[in-house]
Amino acid sequence: MVVCPYPFFLQGSSILLARRKHTAYMPGMYSLPAGHEEENERILDCLIREVREETGVTFDRKDAELVHVMHRNELDVRMDLFFQIKKWNGTPAIMEPDKCDDMRFFPLDALPQNTVPYVRAAIEHWRNGVLYDEWGWK
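RESULT FIELD:
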């Protein structure tokens, strides 16, 4: 099973989203900066690495709070872990222009229509205090 950590970067009542570009999975859709763990990599280390690679932002592992878990069955089976980042250093910027063509904060109550569906669901579950969800299972 693939484990993927995702950050919730909040600015007031807005959340950071990035639009996927030239990707096999949902190009043109907004998602969260994210990636996959590498062999023998701890989840928080993966999250810190991926966020730095994709946004240029850094943060300390103590500032990442687990806020939602999604067991997802979509193309393959994944465990998605969503962390609210309480404090970070730097300003988010597009660091991988070959994979992303827009990155900005969107109001939580007005996410773009073209937000990846499971990401939209995870954000809503977090806002409603739901810690665990299963997505895509029949």
